[in-house]
Amino acid sequence: MVSFELLIMYLSINRGELLGLVGESGSGKSSLGLSIVRLIPPPGRIVDGEITFRGMNLLKLPEKELRNIRGKHIGMIFQDPLTSLDPLRKIGDQLVETIIVHTRVNEEEAKEIALRALERVGIAPDRFDDYPHQLSGGMRQRVMIAMATMLNPDLLIADEPTTALDVIVQSRIMDLLSDLKKSMKMAILLITHDLALVIERSDRVAVMYAGELCEVGPSEVISQEPLHPYTQLLLESIPDIEKPRTKLVYIPGNPPDMRNPPTGCRFWPRCPKVMDVCKRISPRSLELDDRFVRCHLYNGGLECGK
Amino acid sequence: MTSLKVFVIARLLLVIPTILLLVSLVFFIMRVMPGDPVIAIVGMKAPPERILELRKALGLVDESGNPIPLPIQYFNYLANLFRGDFGRSLIWGKRPVLVEIMEHLPATIELAMAGFLVSIILGVTLGTIGGWKGGKMSSAVKIYSAITYALFIPWIGMMLQLLFAVWLKVLPVGGRIDPGLEPPMITGLYLLDSILTGRWDSFVSALRHIILPSLTLGLVISGVFSRVARTSVEEIMRQDFVIAARARGIPEHRLVVHILRNAFIPIMTMMGLQLALLMTGAILTETTFSWPGMGTSLFERIEYRDYTTVQGTVVFFAIIISVINLVVDILYAYIDPRIRY
Question: What topology does CATH give the domain A18-227?
Fold first, then answer.
């Protein structure tokens, strides 16, 4: 049995806030998103912890009650909008089904709600009877957003919502998410590997590496003054189109093999500021004003881990 | 015109070249086979009049005994087929081949349909359970698929005959119905005809006779269905849209419907392919159970080297199979909106 460990120290998200969760592929961002609604595909499982939503611990909730929360109070959108929709059913029917499952309205009223939701994301009503393959990538993602937000959820988990789309469509989808955040006072967890996008669009940033949270803080603060060496390197590796052409900066090395993660801080094999203590002890999270960082550099390099 | 209508028309037109290719293939295969068919039938020492007569019957020479060139033979053959003329039997009193086929067709259709029904019920049910439950259930279904698929029809047929007919004596060994109980001819399908005419004694007898052959045929073909159903249900369950549907709070009982509908596409492809295999399976089953269908008839005619009947039957099989594929393709387009021309 292979085990992948995902350690999240503490992460919170507030109403009307867009939190960007960034990390490399395989760093556990999507697993984090899926754990919130307890949809980690087996053999994965949640060992311990607590996920508090509207005062309830989602990890202790019976499956039936959780099902009412999924889709109604917590919406989710995924990376590939084509494969996230049932290819054999009209998009309208898929919207209507979701509404009927969660509310006590009849088919007619459900259709009304669905049409309004489509209108809000800029999809014409005559698309109601279209199949997913008849829509463009951007339109499909709009449909997914409409479906995830039509019941006014408190939290929207957007797992790489723009990765499969081109830049223009990406920017429109991000505008749409920002509007929804403001108009519906929704909390949005934006999961992505695109740090530049997160810095630009989100209120707060959380950086993940190899299943662990490295740093969390407001976007402007993180972009101006990153504390964790990983965040610093990530920011340096964003190419700047206004500067003359230079060599692409990257972080040497590869993410660790999660079946056998390094001891101590998981970033130490690639860290330019590695110290002895990093190899032995996992750093403790340190709170500084409105931000968190987990790095021995800010513990005075002393052995003050657990 | 809707795209579905266009698709159906285009697909219908596509049947014409398919059948043309099939009948041409049969024609040329019969011509390139080694040996003189006429000598093969009547023997080396046959009188020349008899040989000439057969050559004429086969369309190899004209009235005055001059050989007909191959292209003309081919053209005549196509023209005759187009008129529904499959030629005449060389042996059984020179009866038209089409009459021979039509006489045996209902028995084969009845057996094939019953076998198909058994295989779908067994295969799709087991496969879906295996795919849905996963784990040990999935492995059990995997083993079932491998074993049933590897079964040899005459062997399993004889084992069933031995068990149910010889030892337990609850079902007949072979045949289609007890003598004298044949229902009046309407469709030629005994089960259906006996219901339509209210002949319950005939119905019971026909049902008792069809159980073992259809079980034999159904068991063997269900292996393929259970495998396809299991893998496609497993595959669909891993798809993003299933996770997305769960993330929208869609309850499991609704999810099953969506998954099955999606899983049904590969299952239906398999059904189309298996219907073709069913025809060949029917030949083996028919000979094992002395079932008086096209398979038994074809088997007999090959032994007697009745070329025209064999050729006609093969062409007829080919046409049936292309029509089945046509129906499957149209059903496809109906279920899956992505399939259009």
Answer: Rossmann fold (3.40.50)
**Would you call A288 helix, strand, or coil by DSSP?**
strand
Closest residue of chain B to A88, computed from CA coordinates: B336
pLDDT-derived band of residue B119, with 50, 70 and 90 as boundaries? very high
- Cβ atoms B310, B298 nearer than 8 A: yes
Q: How far is CA B143 from the centre of its chain?
A: 26
Res. B140 pLDDT band, cuts 50 70 90: very high
Give the pLDDT confidence of B295-317 residue by residue, as tens digits. 888 888 888 778 788 888 888 88
Residue A71 to residue B338, Cβ atoms within 8 A: no
Counting Cα atoms < 13 Å in the Cβ hemisphere of B27 gives 22
Query: What are the pLDDT digits (tens) for A216-235?
Result: 999 999 989 898 999 998 88
Cross-chain Cβ contact B262/A88 below 8 Å: yes
Q: Is the peptide bond before B184 cis (omega within 30 degrees of 0)?
A: no
Chain A nearest CA to B340, separation (Å): 12
Q: Where are the beta strands (DSSP E) in chain B?
A: none
Confidence at residue A3, expressed as pLDDT on a 0 to 100 scale: 47
B150: buried, middle or exposed (CB in 10 Å: 19+, 13-18, 0-12)?
A: exposed
Q: In angstroms, what separates the C-alpha of A288 from chain B's closest C-alpha?
A: 35
Q: Which CATH class is domain B97-335?
A: mainly alpha
Give one DSSP letter per residue of B168-201, joined into a string: S--S-SS-SS-TT-PPPPSSS-HHHHHHHTT-HH
Shortest CA distance to B165 belongs to which of B287, B283, B288?
Answer: B288
Q: Which amino acid is at A227?
A: L
Please determine, for residue B264, whether its predicted confidence score (pLDDT) is greater than 90. no
| Contact residues on chain B for A141, CB-CB shorter than 8 A | none
A86 interaction partners in chain B (CB closer than 8 Å): 241, 245, 258, 262
Give, as one character, the DSSP assignment of residue A302: -
Domains of chain B, by residue range, sit at: 3-82, 97-335
Comparing A16 with A9, the larger pLDDT belongs to A16
**Residues A165-208: tens digit of each pLDDT:** 788 888 888 998 898 889 888 999 999 988 888 998 999 999 99
Task: Give the domain ranges of chain A.
Answer: 18-227
User: Which of A34, A41, A97 is opposite residue B250, by nearest beta carbon?
Assistant: A97
Distance CA(A182)–CA(A161), nearest Å, equals: 18
CA distance B243 to chain A (A): 8
Q: Find the mean pLDDT for residues B267-279.
A: 79
Residue numbers in B near A84 (CB within 8 A):
240-241, 243-244
Model confidence band, residue A7 (pLDDT cutoffs 50, 70, 90): low
Residues of A in contact with B337 (CB under 8 A): 87-88, 131, 133
Answer whether B244 sits within 8 Å of A97, measured CB to CB: no
Residues of A in contact with B234 (CB under 8 A): none
* Tens of pLDDT, residues B72-117: 888 888 888 888 888 888 776 678 888 888 888 899 989 999 999 9
* Cα(B145)–Cα(A279) distance, integer angstroms: 52
To the nearest whole angstrom, how far is the Cα of A133 from the nearest Cα of chain B? Answer: 7
* Mean pLDDT in residue range B181-189: 82
Using an 8 Å CB-CB cutoff, list chain A residues near B266. none
In Å, how far are A43, A216, B54 from B130, measured between CA atoms?
18, 45, 58
